[in-house]
């Protein structure tokens, strides 16, 4: 393979890499409130029915709390008002700070920043494409992502949705692909957590993941999220914040959230 081939960005390959459950983001440490939900619930329905209900609520929550920020972060580098990397990073940091402020549950906020830092580190060490293969943009995307990683401090740490949007854009993924894979990864992480909690087995998890009903829930959450702006973003399933917040009070737990 020649040097030219190595410098060609393959969006399809990056799409598969970003959708890989083995991406080292530490997502295995988080259950997105599922463990707390199961602990505080008295199961009166089959485990699969309970899990499908929780998955639907969790995706619905993401569609209005997180997807609007992914969309905004994805669009910032190509806004005509941002002609320099400095102006773009200022907007990115402001957006990240807004997401931090609107994420009222400290457990969820900590999970987002932990995975955001991990994703930026993975990009820097493994996924950063050659400059010649970067998609067209009004600003220097690698410099923007690097600035977001290093300028984010304790008061404004990097968040997963913002980092996800910028890295997906640098990989030449469309906004539709970016949001869909984000929701799909969340679905896979929840199903993996359900297996580790012995709620379901691995074969059942794969059956749920491949089910048309699951795809419909993911697509519905995506469609909703793409219609919601940052100004309208907010938690539509507040009970999930309660489950997340109660997680730290569990006497015995497998996950960090």
UniProtKB/TrEMBL annotation:
GO terms for molecular function: nickel cation binding. InterPro entries: UreF, UreF_sf. Pfam families: UreF. Signal peptide: none annotated. It comes from the Eukaryota. Keywords: Chaperone, Nickel insertion. Gene3D superfamilies: Urease accessory protein UreF. Belongs to the UreF family. HAMAP family: UreF (MF_01385). This is Urease accessory protein UreF. It comes from Terfezia boudieri ATCC MYA-4762.
């Amino acid at each position: 393979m020649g040097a030219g081939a190595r410098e060609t960005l393959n969006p399809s390959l990056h799409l598969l890499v970003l959708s890989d459950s083995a991406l080292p983001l530490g997502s295995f440490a988080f259950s997105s409130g599922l463990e707390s939900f199961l602990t505080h619930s008295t199961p009166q329905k089959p485990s699969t029915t309970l899990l499908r209900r929780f998955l639907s609520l969790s995706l619905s929550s993401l569609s209005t709390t997180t997807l609007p920020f992914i969309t905004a972060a994805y669009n910032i580098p190509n806004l005509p008002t941002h002609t320099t990397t400095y102006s773009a990073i200022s907007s990115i940091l402001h957006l990240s700070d807004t997401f931090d402020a609107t994420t009222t549950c400290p457990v969820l906020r900590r999970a987002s920043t932990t995975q955001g830092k991990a994703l930026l580190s993975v990009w820097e060490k493994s996924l950063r494409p050659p400059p010649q293969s970067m998609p067209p943009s009004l600003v220097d995307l690698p410099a923007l992502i690097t600035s977001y990683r290093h300028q984010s401090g304790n008061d404004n740490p990097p968040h997963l949705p913002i980092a996800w949007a910028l890295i997906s854009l640098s990989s030449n993924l469309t906004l539709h692909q970016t949001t869909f894979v984000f929701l799909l990864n969340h679905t896979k992480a929840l199903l993996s957590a359900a297996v580790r909690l012995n709620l379901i087995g691995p074969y059942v998890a794969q059956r749920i993941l491949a089910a048309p009903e699951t795809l419909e829930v993911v697509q519905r959450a995506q469609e909703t999220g793409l219609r919601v702006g940052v100004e309208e973003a907010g938690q539509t399933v507040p009970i999930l914040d309660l489950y997340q917040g109660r997680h730290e009070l569990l006497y015995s737990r497998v996950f960090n959230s």
